[in-house]
Amino acid sequence: MNETLNTPDLSVEIAGLRLRNPVMPASGCFGFGREYAEYYPLNRLGAVVTKAVTLRPRLGNPTPRVTETGAGMLNAIGLANPGVEHVLANELQWLAEQDVPVIVNVAGETKDEYVEVAGIISGSGLAAAVELNVSCPNVKAGGISFGTDPRILQDLVEAVRRVCTVPLFVKLSPNVTDIRRIALAARAGGAEALTLINTLIGMQIDIHRRRPVLANTVGGLSGPAIKPVAVRMVYEVAKVVDIPVIGMGGICSGTDAIEFVMAGAGAVMVGTANFTNPMACPQIIAEIDQFMLEHGIKSLTEIRGCIT
Amino acid sequence: MKVTVTDTAKIARETWQLAFTGSFPYDSVKPGQFVMIRIGSGMEHVLRRPISITAVSEDCLTIVFRVAGKGTKWLSERKPDDGLDVLGPLGKGFPLPPANAGTLIVGGGIGAPPLYLLAERARHLTERLDIVLGFRTAADCFWAEEFAGLGNLALATDDGSLGTKGTVIDAIKALPAERPEPSPNLKQWDYVYACGPLPMLKAVKRHFDGRSVRGYVSLEQRMACGVGACYGCVCQSSDKSATKRVCADGPVFDWNEVAL
């Protein structure tokens, strides 16, 4: 039999974007790609997702900003980034030469700021898609407040949709009572794909010093510890929306990724695992390929959302 | 990189040394750089631990670390022939002093280890190499003989159980002001390097305020990625208008460049 006939096709289509494979780094866990380009060519990824970009530079929160927890970690970086102008000139220009779709994560403190940054990014021609960050738990203004109220979220997505000339993804927070309501609001506002989940708000206390470990007191929990929560939320959301869902939360292996696909994800993002192992994304891609080969799966659409 | 542990030993209170061999770019190591070591084999520990490099040969690297939590506890329990997953060398190291510079190296507690490799590389360049190490008490002191083999070593302990009773500043003040032949008229030190707790770094910098020395400090911070991607381990620039990543922009900084 011809070998090539059995070769799995890992490519996926998300909101009109053709990705080589379904694996992307999660925003905030990959900088703007430069550091990991030392480990492997970025064009092995389905796409690169940048760190959150805001209108003006943000220094972020005081340190400590990160700490390990059981099978996970807490972070409270606070959307530190050099601002949209610097990112365009220094990061997106460079990323455009890496032969990989670039999804730019956009954050803001006000609706106007989201609209302005998304307009600048999509107008630059350097982004394949914009991912709206309405779920950062670590900033006082903006971020998560847009992601927890369905009416405010729909209004924001509509406003961004009007200026955004590339596919618009909305990244959802798990820190809500019913994520389906938020997902439907984002969809109603014009989102073309949903990415979930962002981190769960958590806290760790240093009992010897009797104070929180993180300077910000609370932070976002990520890593394998949150995977079952994430799989459940992807499963719930994929059932109620008619747009692609990109799943994430504790993915460390190809089989973890397959679990999200079976729950209904059209693609996946890998966050914390990049820190454990800088080669995590390429290894996960290889493991997905291996799983598909072993199980005679030619395309991920065959198993996507197979759990009913 | 997968490496193999060759040797471990407890060398002071809560303090261990560990050497490994195997595939690692030993030749490229600069003093002040660090490695990120994966803890355990499953996904219980998602963050690697940053540990500074103490010594390196053509096929072996040695780290010295204090057991401060679960990760370093695990590391202290490694035995010869155990495998380790190590990333590195990472970060920017210490710029070496120019030829004939008078050099002072100041270490506090578990900040001392990266200064060993610095002293080893600097001693051939420098006319006068003073090394001042401070510990809480004699039970915390390690590698004193090794450091003494590289330069003029002075020790300080809080309780006076070893060396000067007091801080590293007290020990620095007690050092002779003159340089040995052939340059007795040159000033004591041109280059000062320090690694240790933040209050010590501040005190050393303050001690040299207004004197024309170049000062470098190595900073410590909780890290996640270790390669500059996550912005977890930042410090502030001296004017507090920007942040710098300890892992990728440091861990060594000119002491005028960062807010201590």
Provide structural commentary.
The complex is a heterodimer of chains A (308) and B (260). Chain A is α/β, with parallel strands linked by helices. Chain A has one domain: TIM Barrel, CATH 3.20.20. Chain A contains 11 helices and 16 strands. Chain A has helices at residues 3-6, 34-37, 84-95, 111-123, 144-148, 150-163, 179-189, 227-240, 254-263, 273-276, 280-294, and strands at residues 12-14, 17-19, 23-25, 48-49, 66-69, 72-75, 102-106, 129-133, 168-171, 193-196, 200-203, 205-206, 211-212, 218-222, 245-247, 267-270. In chain A, the strands form 4 sheets. Chain A has an 8-stranded parallel beta sheet with strand order 3-16-15-10-9-8-7-4. In chain A, strands 5-6-14-11 form a 4-stranded antiparallel beta sheet, with no helix packed on it. In chain A, a hairpin with a 2-residue loop joins strand 1 (12-14) and strand 2. In chain A, helix 7 crosses helix 8, helix 8 runs parallel beside helix 9 (254-263) and helix 9 crosses helix 11 (280-294). With 260 residues, chain B is an alpha/beta fold. Chain B has 2 domains: 2-90, Translation factors (Elongation Factor Tu (Ef-tu), domain 3, Beta Barrel), CATH 2.40.30.10; 102-218, Nucleotide-binding domain of ferredoxin-NADP reductase (FNR) module (Rossmann fold), CATH 3.40.50. Chain B is 15% helix and 33% strand. In chain B, the strands form 3 sheets. In chain B, strands 10-9-8-7-11-12-15 form a 7-stranded mixed beta sheet, with helices on both faces. A 6-stranded antiparallel β-barrel of chain B has the order 1-2-5-4-3-6. A two-stranded antiparallel ribbon of chain B has the order 13-14. The model of chain B has no long low-confidence stretch (mean pLDDT 95). Chains A and B meet through helix 2, strand 5, strand 6 and helix 10 of A and strand 13 of B.
